[in-house]
Amino acid sequence: MSQMNQPLIELIGVTKTYGDGPNAVRAVDDIHFTAQSGEWIAIMGPSGSGKTTLLNLIGCLDQATSGQLLIGGTDTSKLRRSDLVRFRSETVGFVFQQFHLVPHLTALENVMLAQFFHSMTDETEALEALKQVDLADRATHLPSQLSGGEQQRVAIARALVNDPKIILADEPTGNLDAENQRIVFDLLSRLHGQGRTIVMVTHDENAGKLADRRVHLEHGRIKELLVFSAEENQDFDEVLEHLWTRGEPGGHVESHSFTEVQWRKLINTMAGIGLVSVTNGQGVFTPKGEARARDVIRRHRLAERLFRDVLGIHDEDEIEASACKFEHILSPEVTDRMCCLLGHPDACPHGSPIPRGGCCDAGIVLDSVEAQSILTSIKGI
Q1: What is the largest CA-CA distance in the chain?
Q2: Model pLDDT for residues 29-69, shown as the tens digit of each residue
Q3: I want to staple 97 with a disulfide (CB 3.0 to 4.6 A). Which of 36, 171, 233, 299 is the partner?
Q4: Torsion over CA of 231, 235, 241 and 244, rounded to 10 degrees?
């Protein structure tokens, strides 16, 4: 695997056992897991499922009983303790539920403390980190003079000051009220938008939905739930349509409605479920993703032909808007029957090719009764 495409975080058969013999507890049990650079992962699950243990292993605060943890291609199990400490300080920034601020140090000094353990203190850089969390004006305040939300933001600034590749957050809003939870999650979203890699432990389903991928643990094992809402699936289809049309020579390129941050988040999520792979930061079809994209494009372009040729709509904007809504509710069976009704057209109204289906290869033709039946059902959708 080339360095360019190598996951930032890779766990291979990682197990963490506490105790010996029949009473030994497997807190983490044979975990296989990867995370790409710039991805936001939410680790979820009930109490005792191994979430914090897994986070500590990724952060090199603890070492696995067996298996490998690779970060940026470095096998951390082969590092000596002194090298591991330096590697951790250079690679990972931590944000905990308990803020762990030193009470007699100011906000600025608490941030500089992280610099001290990394290399040398730099007040200008520390103040810049506080600016990133909108707390430059509170730099000289002690933790007791700050609200809970402000203390957590100081902790995030401390995690950022050494410019780590990875931010690890363990229940970062667990001790905060709703308003401060929102502020902290907005801040994490902003950092994610800058390309930061975030691995976050949370029990909050709403918080988990902010991430690119949600990894659920049960009894120390990963149970990754790949169930997405209808809206999320529509977003995936829109991305697939754009990637498909972008690859067609001289074709009608479908636009998309996502910001750069939203696009990157969707690409990372789709990579996690096998619809695309990521090459040089760009989404590239997997066979599974290409097959789904072909189906989406076929439904969309057949719907465009239906609205123009059968329903007599000629306004291009109305055709496009209607086809976008229609394509998500057509079953494969209805799609094939619609294709037969239209006589297996080769192209959409823009002239872009319509991928063929099994009904095209079989040359199925509807008689007048079947045609009327399918037209009635389509009008009723």
Answers
A1: 85
A2: 999 988 888 888 999 988 888 899 999 999 988 889 999 99
A3: 171
A4: -140
Number of neighbouring beta carbons within 10 Å of residue 324: 17
CATH code reported for the domain at 290-379: 1.10.10.10
- CA 126 to chain CA centroid, nearest Å: 29
And the tokens for 251? Answer: 């074709």
**How many degrees, rounded to 5, is the angle at CA 335 between CA 330 and CA 336?**
155
Smallest CA-to-CA distance from 36 within 289, 162, 235, 212 is with: 212
pTM (global) more than 0.70 = no
CA distance 273 to 37: 16
- DSSP assignment of 238-274: HHHHHHHHHTSTT--PPP----HHHHHHHHHHHHHTT
Distance CA 158, CA 102 (A): 12
pLDDT at 4: 42
Render pLDDT for 87-106 as a digit per residue (tens, 0 to 9): 888 889 998 888 889 999 99
Domain 3-223 has CATH 3.40.630.10: no
Q: How many CB atoms lie within 10 A of CB 83?
A: 12
Q: Which residues contact 106 (CB under 8 A, 6 or more apart)?
A: 139, 140, 141, 142
Structure tokens at 283: 């989404």
Kindly give, in sequence order, each residue whose CB lies less than 8 Å from that of residue 280, ignoring residues fewer than 6 positions away. Answer: 4
Contacts of 152 (CB under 8 A, 6+ apart): 95, 99, 172, 173, 175, 176, 180, 184
Spell out, as residue ranges, where the chain has pLDDT lower than 70.
Answer: 1-5, 117-120, 224-230, 250-255, 325-330, 366-381
Strand-pair category, 197-201 with 166-170: parallel
Q: Which residues are within 8 A (CB) of 162 and not within 5 positions of it... i.e. 6 or more apart? A: 89, 90, 93, 114, 115, 118, 119
For 296, phi then psi, to 5°, come to -65, -45
Residue 170 tokens, joined: 């363990």
One-letter identity of residue 242: H
Per-residue pLDDT at 231: 75
What type of residue is 246?
Answer: R
